[in-house]
Amino acid sequence: MSLARPARCLFCSFSRAASAAPRVPRRQFHASPLQLNDNKPKVPEMPVPVPDAKAVEAKTSEVQTSEVKTLRQIYEEMKPEDFKPYTEEEKAVLKEHYSPEQIAAIEAGEAAIDPKDLAEQFHFRRNPMQIKYLDDFSVIEPVVDHHVRGAKSNSDYNAKLKSEEDFVEDFAEYFDKMPEDADAAHWVRFLETTRMTLGKEESELDPHSALVPDIFEHGESLERIGQPPPKRIMVRNRMGELEEQKPEEIPEVDERLYKLTGYSRQYISSLYIKTLVSRRVSNQTRLGKIPSVSILAISGNRDGMLGMGIGKSQEATDAIQQAKARAIMNMTHVPRYEGRTIFGDVEGKVGATELKIMQRPPGFGLRCQHLIFEMCRAAGIHDIAARISRARNPMNTAKAAYEALMSQRNPEDIARARGKKIVDVRGVYYSGRSLPRAADK
Amino acid sequence: MSLVNLAHVCSHLNNATKARLGITSIPNTKLHLKLCLALQNDGLISSVVRGGLTAPPTHPLLGTPMPNDEVEKVEPVTQSNVASRRLWLGLKYWQSESVMGKLSLVSKPTRRVTIDVQGLRRVVRGERSETVEGLRNPGELLYLSTDRGVLEARECVEKKLGGLILCRVR
Questions:
Q1: CB-based contacts of A332, cutoff 8 Å, min separation 6
Q2: Which Gene Ontology biological process is one annotated for this entry (chain B) (predicted)?
């Protein structure tokens, strides 16, 4: 690289357009940094050249003649006639720079504003928020603006550094085309614009680099360089504050459960799961008693599915997890009459616990012991009575109730077995229409 | 009319269905025959044949006793062989479960239970009438001995008949 070239941002070599004129190095007589642009606000009373046409949106002939006027003079002499529609020549010039859609938008904007309003309301900003300089926003300033990484397509992997012969050719061309009155600026321009490599021009001027300007921009990762950051979803937390939604980590145990059961995560989260019985048990070994926890859990979808599972572990949380997972895996269908009660009276017996669950009319409720209540709730049964005779051991009660609920006989099966037709008289009473299900109410 | 024998029949049928037998025999009495025909009418057993001490010919496919086999005809009942007659029943199963559930005697040999139409109406509706529990399970049956033979409880209500309650089938 030529030493005559002034020092610039190492990564961002794309902003050559920022300086229209070649930057001729001048000798500095002081240590303060060289100020290329005069960023100080112009004193309004001083005669200034009329600001850029883009900034004012003034395209008056008067302005274009560019007589030296003060801002106040411009401000006071503003007339509606100053704001004329574009002439055909101006439109032709615009067409070179803008696409037809953009021109249409410009014209629509022009038409939307009355020239009278423009003349009346035009003024230079004097408020503290005014922009203190006139700047060209179409150019990326390496220091001020946010860095932009070159596109991947800018890279040219076959680019080669120029050999000495190539440079000799360049020089020969330069001297060949050199005008008679060549000055230092001409030489500097040549040095600045001479390319160092052969190949794509963008590859030298604005190459794609993962290092620009940091290794990653905000929201970027190694997989998605140069892509926009993923959308941030804001949710309210328990305290009512807005915070970013973090992707939930699914534990491995849950992941396995989804695979085993085939149920979706959403479905499992909608289930009614409850631990009914927990007790401490111990295994007597020659080393002593090893205590553990035994948990009985049930799960149901409140609409005819019920499962029961038992988990045992030395850790209570582990036992609960096991029991719940087994309850979900064991879920089966419980027959329900009209979606609210059971078919007939059923009995269950486990150990010394014997119980009877009886069907009841609509609106009766769940008049039974709490364990059976929870099971009926999980299964979506609403009208039931139950009676436990003999022992009332909680674990056996739950098991016996499960057994009883599962031992219901389906009337359709009975009809098929006997070769008879069985009619639900309750359903026939309302001219054969089925009753609205309790779940639908 | 011996309810002791009927109790034996009920237990025997329960045992036979638990053992998943396809065919069994019970003593031949008029009461048993009427009850068996009532059971057959309700589809709980497949066939009833009055045969001898050995099993009558069975259906080649179903394996149930046949009353009208063309080759081997059922021996007609005579005065000489009536004492050795037995009722051969073909038992039914559906999805490896017995079609006929548990038979249990309601009237006992020492305490006969009779019921009138009003009481029977309550029983059929699933309510309790005196000592008789209602028919609350799907497919539950109650057989009565009435003036017009052995009938199911619902038939009795239809015909406005009361009678002696024999047994209940769950």
A1: A305, A306, A307, A406
A2: translation
**pLDDT score at A363:** 92
Which residue, of B70, B98, B126, is where some domain finishes? Answer: B98
Domain boundary among A333, A363, A384: A333
Task: Flag if A414 and B44 touch (Cβ within 8 Å).
Answer: no
- Shortest distance between the Cα of A427 and any Cα of chain B, in A, equals 14
**CA–CA distance, A39 with A66 (Å, rounded to integer):** 22
A358 and A285 share a domain?
Answer: no
CATH of the domain at B26: 3.30.1370.30
Report the C-alpha gap between A209 and A155 in whole angstroms: 9
pLDDT at A44 exceeding the cut of 60: no
Q: Is A358 on the interface with B (CB under 8 A)?
A: yes
Specify the pLDDT at position A111: 86
> Is A216 within the bounds of a domain?
no
- How many contacts (CB atoms, under 8 Å) link A and B? 39
Nearest-CA distance B4 → chain A (Å): 28
Within an 8 Å CB–CB cutoff, is residue A409 touching chain B?
yes
Contacts of A359 in chain B (CB under 8 A): 136
A225-269: pLDDT as tens digits: 767 777 778 888 888 888 887 777 888 888 888 998 899 888 999
Min Cα distance B86 → chain A (Å) is 24
- Minimum-distance CB partner of B139 among A345, A359, A409: A409
The pTM score is 0.60
Give the 3-state DSSP-derived string for A92-129, with helices as H, strands as E and coil as C: HHHHHHCCHHHHHHHHHHHHHCCHHHHHHHCCCCCCCC
CATH number at residue A271: 3.30.160.20
Q: What is the ipTM of this complex?
A: 0.88
- Cα gap A102→A100, rounded to integer Å: 5
**A285 domain residue, yes or no:** yes
Residues of B (24-43) whose Cβ lies below 8 Å from A = 42-43
Domain span at residue A287 reads 252-333
Pair of tokens at residue A210: 């993962």
B54: distance to nearest CA of chain A, Å? Answer: 27
Residue at A77 is within a domain: yes
Whole-number average pLDDT of chain A? 79
Domain that holds residue B82: 3-98
Give yes or no for residue A66 having a pLDDT over 70.
no
Looking at the structure, tell me whether residues B86 and B64 fall in a common domain.
yes
- A124-133, A157-166, A196-205, B151-160: least confidently modelled range: A124-133
Contacts of B99 in chain A (CB under 8 A): 417-418
Residues A324 and A392 placed together within one structural domain of the fold: no
Residue B111, SS3 per DSSP: strand
Q: Is B99 on the interface with A (CB under 8 A)?
A: yes
